[in-house]
Amino acid sequence: MLNLSNQNVAEEVWEQAARQSRPELLRFGASRRLARILLVMGLVFLVVLFLPWRQTIYGSGSLTTLTPQDRPQNIQNQIAGRIEHWNVREGQLVHRGDTLMMLSEIKDEYFDPNLPERLSEQLTAKRGNVAANAAKIAATDQQLTALKTTLDVQLESARNKVEQAENYLNSDRADLVAISTFYETAKARLLRYEEGYKNGLFSLTDIETRRLKLQEDLAKVTSQRNKVASSVQGLANARIELTNLRAKYGQDLAKTLSDRSSAVSSRSSSEGEVAALRNKISNVQVRRGLYVVRAPQTGYIVRALKAGIGETIKEGESVATLQPESPLLAAEVYVRAMDVPLIQRGRTVRLQFDGFPAIQFSGWPSAAVGTFGGVVTVIDVVSSPGGKYRLLVRPTQPQPGDQPWPKQLRLGSGVQGWVILDSVPVWYEIWRQLNGFPPTLSAEPDVTPVKGEEKGK
To answer: How much is the pTM?
Structure first.
């Protein structure tokens, strides 16, 4: 303002406004109406403080499936090959067992179109080898039987010879004792005759006769001792022959057993080769059935991960993504770690899905519009990478006035959830929120594992 005029406009405006408002302010009815309004508002606020308020736990997440087989899966080929033909397109509904693509062989060891026949010929030859080894084992068993029989006969004969030699030795020793006795008797008689000769009782002829008899008896003793020694030698020879016989036949038996063991080893090796060939034939037959990649279950081909004809792929490589046709949907909701101890299976949940307008009243779930009911089915026992815990919420049976989950829901779409807890007064909820306390429960949550989880443990 340039202050070019001496007239003060502001004072005149304030004086005029004061003159007009003074009668209104002096009216007694207007002040009473204001007091009534404030009183009613205070009473309403006081009543609201004691109204029941449903405590809730908020969480957000996305839609998933309750069972792993209902989630999107990558279809993988089991063998390496070359893509020859695609039988499907993206977005197409396929049934279990439908052909998705055709492959051709790229490994040179399977190029031969008559490979099963070749392997069957090798298998026949190996089976013949097994039969030959079995015949050799049977012949060796017969040879062992014959050797054992012959050994028994020879050993019995050798034992008889030993026994016979022992008998001869015993007889010769008995004869030696008798002849020695005769010799001692003849010696004693000679001494008596010599005494009698000195006394004149016997003649010289009698003495000489007795001396000749003594020499004959001594010769008999010497001859019998030699005979005993010969018998001892014969017994030793019989025993040596018995030992040699055992050693000889033991060597023959050991050689025959060695031949049998070689035949058994060769048969076992041939049987192993037969088993390997049979396994290879089965593998070839199964491999030829894997040239066709089929759908593992009914669903939609979401995306083809390999493109073109003639492209080479490795074994176990993903070729397409399949979404099962009718998945068992569940809401995957993440809540804070401080709220998990207050949640138990079977708790009611109100859900709001992306794309479906809704108005949620946290404290009065019955007044919510556009939300859908659910129940807590799974509570993870470990936290997710973000530090929150995951809940899986399944739809409940629609209650009167409630709606089932929309059929337009798709996996991966966003969802917000409110787990319904116990009722508390509004004043308590305001006090809890101001102090940052967690919700409260009237009873301790039941954490008993459900049937099936106990068996899994």
So the answer is: 0.58
For 192, other C-beta atoms within 10 Å of its C-beta total: 12
Q: Which pLDDT does position 376 carry in this prediction?
A: 92
Environment class of residue 100 by beta-carbon count within 10 Å: exposed (0-12), middle (13-18) or buried (19+)? buried
Model confidence at 263: pLDDT above 50: yes
Question: What are the tokens at 291?
Answer: 């040239």
Residue 39, CB-side half-sphere exposure with 13 Å CA sphere: 6
Burial 214-229 (b: 16+ CB within 10 A, else e): beebeebbeebeebbe
In angstroms, the CA 351 to CA 395 distance is 10
Per-residue pLDDT reduced to its tens digit, 50-61: 777 788 888 999
Domains of the chain: 1-49 (no CATH), 53-69+327-456 (2.40.30.170), 72-105+291-324 (2.40.50.100), 115-289 (1.10.287.620)
CA 17-19-20 angle, 5° bins: 65
Collapsed DSSP state (helix, strand, coil) of residue 444: coil
Instruction: Tell me the per-residue pLDDT of 40-50, one tens digit each, with 9 for 90 and over.
Output: 888 887 777 77
Residue 161, C-beta contacts closer than 8 angstroms, at least 6 positions apart: 238, 241, 242
Predicted confidence (pLDDT) per residue in 280-315, tens digit: 888 888 888 888 899 999 999 998 888 778 888 888
Strand stretches in 22-139, DSSP E: 52-65, 73-76, 81-86, 93-94, 99-104
Contact 127, 121 (CB under 8 A): no
* Residue 105 banded pLDDT, cuts 50, 70, 90: confident
Instruction: Report the candidate in 267, 283, 271, 264 with the shortest Cα–Cα distance to residue 123.
Output: 271
What dihedral angle (degrees, nearest 10) is formed by the CA atoms of 147, 153, 157, 159? 80
Report how far residue 432's alpha carbon sits from residue 365's, in angstroms, rounded to the nearest whole number.
19
Band (pLDDT 50/70/90 cuts) for residue 98 is: very high
d(CA 277, CA 272): 9
Identify the CA nearest to 119 among candidates 312, 330, 275.
275
Measured distance CA(93)–CA(91) in Å, rounded? 7
Tokens, residue 386: 């973000």
